[in-house]
């Protein structure tokens, strides 16, 4: 964050001149993009066309996959920006849009995982309450719209602000890497913005999700089959790993960096920048959540894998026959 007339510190300028960091981040984004589009593309096809009925969990998974595919489509622009030396050439509107896609994916993923956790909690720990709740599909769809509304409401400043910043010393224009302090009218407005992002969109959903999965594991540990218990524990581990490895470092560093920048004129932006690229790994892990959370998804995926293995086996047999005939 900087004033429009403020000169950037040496640490920030060094980051923009560090080609090694830029290449590392770009390589991570390339790997994430490939896994994201292939894994979530197959997941979306299975969830939409091969999985029925559309239970609340399936609806939440479709919502999660949609946000992941949006991120996968936006990452190539970020890769190009990194490889061009942090020089944004697509204009301020495109910068705001892609930044919004980036952060909407993160926080919609957090809220959707919380919704899946609540759905499993009600289904396993509070089954009577769960059965009495009618119109569950409608509630799930409305919940998805409310999630998007909440996230877009909190991130509204990103939609209405020019997030590009010209650095004459390096002859580049950055995108969201240098924020102007006058993006928001006061320090209290900045505090509210950061509080909403870190605590409302991350910390509170993390606590709720953790409570739900711990309650589910305790319930299944008392009176469940071994296979179901193992799947529940694996699902809880994957979800908590996504929170701890992908979302927690980024949100904690965002808060620390913003406080240091606003009040002490110091920065840890390089660490935050690296944590931001690791936050995208959630889009690669989400298909594992679908696998452990949905029995129907699991069965359909196994059927596809079985068909592929059978077709490959048939093709090998055909090749062997052709080899034998050609030998004659």
From TrEMBL:
Localization in the cell:
Cell membrane
Q: Which residues cross the membrane?
A: 20-37, 58-77, 97-118, 139-159, 189-214, 235-260, 272-293
- Principal location class: membrane
Q: Does the keyword Transmembrane apply?
A: yes
Its Gene Ontology molecular function terms?
A: G protein-coupled receptor activity
Which terms in the GO cellular component ontology are assigned? plasma membrane
Q: Which PROSITE patterns did the record assign?
A: G_PROTEIN_RECEP_F1_1, G_PROTEIN_RECEP_F1_2
Q: Which InterPro entries match?
A: GPCR_Rhodpsn (IPR000276), GPCR_Rhodpsn_7TM (IPR017452)
Q: Which GO BP annotation is one of this protein's?
A: G protein-coupled receptor signaling pathway
Signal sequence span is none
Task: Report membrane topology.
Answer: Multi-pass membrane protein
One Pfam family from the record: 7tm_1
Q: Which UniProt keywords apply?
A: Cell membrane, G-protein coupled receptor, Glycoprotein, Membrane, Receptor, Transducer, Transmembrane, Transmembrane helix
Per the database record, which ranges form the G-protein coupled receptors family 1 profile domain?
Answer: 39-290
Which superkingdom does the taxonomy of this entry point to?
A: Eukaryota
Instruction: Please state which protein family the record places this protein in.
Output: Belongs to the G-protein coupled receptor 1 family.
Q: What is this protein called?
A: P2Y receptor family member 8
Organismal lineage: Eukaryota, Metazoa, Chordata, Craniata, Vertebrata
């Amino acid at each position: 964050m900087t004033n429009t007339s403020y000169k950037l510190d040496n640490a920030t300028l060094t980051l923009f001149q560090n080609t090694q960091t830029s290449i590392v981040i770009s390589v991570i984004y390339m790997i994430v993009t490939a896994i994201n589009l292939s894994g979530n593309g197959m997941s979306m096809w299975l969830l939409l066309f091969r999985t029925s009925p559309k239970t609340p969990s399936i609806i939440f998974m479709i919502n999660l996959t949609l946000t992941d595919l949006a991120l996968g489509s936006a990452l190539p622009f970020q890769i190009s920006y990194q490889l061009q030396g942090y020089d944004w050439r697509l204009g301020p509107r495109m910068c705001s849009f892609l930044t919004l896609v980036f952060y909407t994916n993160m926080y919609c993923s957090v809220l959707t995982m919380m919704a899946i956790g609540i759905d499993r909690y009600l289904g396993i720990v509070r089954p009577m309450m769960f059965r009495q709740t009618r119109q569950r599909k409608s509630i799930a769809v409305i919940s998805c719209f409310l999630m998007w509304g909440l996230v877009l409401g909190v991130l509204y400043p990103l939609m209405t602000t020019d997030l590009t910043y010209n650095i004459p010393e390096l002859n580049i224009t950055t995108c969201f890497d240098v924020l102007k302090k006058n993006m928001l009218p006061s320090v209290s407005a900045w505090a509210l913005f950061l509080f909403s992002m870190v605590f409302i969109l991350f910390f509170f959903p993390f606590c709720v999700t953790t409570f739900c999965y711990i309650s589910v594991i305790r319930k299944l540990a008392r009176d469940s089959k071994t296979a179901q218990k193992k799947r529940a524990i694996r699902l809880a581990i994957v979800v908590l790993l996504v929170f701890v490895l992908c979302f927690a470092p980024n949100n904690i560093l965002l808060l620390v960096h913003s406080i240091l920048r606003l009040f002490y004129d110091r920065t840890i932006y390089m660490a935050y920048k690296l944590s931001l690229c690791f936050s995208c790994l959630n889009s690669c892990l989400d298909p594992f959540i679908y696998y452990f959370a949905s029995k129907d998804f699991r069965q359909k995926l196994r059927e596809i894998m079985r068909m592929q293995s059978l077709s490959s086996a048939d093709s090998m047999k055909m090749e062997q026959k052709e080899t034998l005939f050609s030998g004659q």
